[in-house]
Amino acid sequence: MDKDDVVDVLNDLIETSKDGEYGFRTSAEHAQADSLRSLLLRRADQCRQAVIELEAMVRHYGGEPEERGSVAGALHRGWVAVKSKLTTYDDKAILEECERGEDVAKARYRKALDQTLPPDVQALVQRQFEGVQRNHDEVKALRNQARAAS
Known about the structure:
This protein is mainly alpha-helical. It contains five helices and no strands. The radius of gyration is 16 Å and the shape is elongated. 37% of the residues are buried.
């Protein structure tokens, strides 16, 4: 894999992480429970940290970091807003959408891990993927609790 391909993979993950940050922040704005709001803001901060790490790696490989989120992310953000309004900002609906967003992030990280990446990039992507997996599992558990309570 040449440097341009590595930069493309990293920029895809930058888009994914920016989408996640925005999605978690948007969801936090509409969360009713303070504990959920705090959790979502922590997740947004983790996504922001991932972006910083990925941008540094892009520069290390001679590229320019992605400036925006993806088109799919824009649709996801729009869907968060619409669904939240339709359900009067119900925390269960917010958790369901956050889980869906994390499913997308997991798929994009898995796709990156399927590439033949340089060892330093592979290690970073693997570590971040494990964080995405933890986020997904925690959001899913909270969603399951919310479903059981309703």
